[in-house]
Amino acid sequence: MGAWDKRHRRRRRLLLVGLRLLLLVAAAYGLLLCPSWVEGKYRGTKVYRNAPLCTAAQQGGAVPADDCLEQLTGRVVDKVTRESCTTDSNGVRSCTTDYDVRVRYERGTPWLSVSAPTYRAVRRDDRAELRTWHGSVVRMVVHGHTQSYLAPAESAMLWRMAGAWALLGLVVGSLAVHRKTYAGFFAAGWLLLTFSAVGITDGVLFGSLDTPDLIVFAALSLPGLGVLVAGWRFSPWH
Fold first, then answer.
1. What phi and psi, each to the nearest 5 degrees, are found at residue 118?
2. Element at 2 (helix H, strand E)
3. In terms of Cα–Cα distance, which of 38, 79, 41 is closest to 164?
4. pTM of the predicted model, to two decimals?
5. pLDDT tens for residues 192-213?
6. Do residues 118 and 143 touch, judged by C-beta distance below 8 A?
7. Is the per-residue pLDDT at 6 higher than 70?
8. Cα–Cα distance measured from residue 191 to residue 198, given in angstroms and rounded to the nearest whole number
9. What is the DSSP letter of 67?
10. Which of 222, 224, 221 is CA-nearest to residue 187?
């Protein structure tokens, strides 16, 4: 019986080692592909962030002749609120409210998310000053309130960088994490660091990272670092 248990444990360890190696190889391969995966969206984002405003002649066509930002006027035609709720393991229910306004302009009638103060300030038929990039609204000014939105290439680039960070976490975790008790801490801490990692990388790529940004990102990193340090107590090296 003891010999059978030993063989079973050995097979189980070999299976876990094989799965770890497979995960490591897959994550490392995906990480190698990330630069080319992000590159196209990076170029599109760079063009957008350096784009000038369109001239009156350019804005006369159906689509801007060059990569420039159109300035258009629209009207608020509707507004709604949406509430989403979650219940934790202790039965505590928490809800968040999202605010949207619908704006009609010559190229469409999109729903745009806004802040609570903006939502309370706007009324139907209010004039909205819009700035668009390749047909997508990237800024709206209404009733003195300004709302900014990510351009499609910019949004895609940030999501892809977050994916690259997740793959890097799989590589590091596969090499460094050897205990189940620490794996959960590592995964949670790494996930909490995603926003800061992506924000810092974005700032470095576009040369927009300054001291206030670093302070903000450092503060946002504290929860993730705290989870990693707390989990370190369960690591093989402690």
1. -65, -45
2. helix 2-49
3. 38
4. 0.75
5. 999 999 999 888 888 877 888 8
6. yes
7. no
8. 11
9. S
10. 224
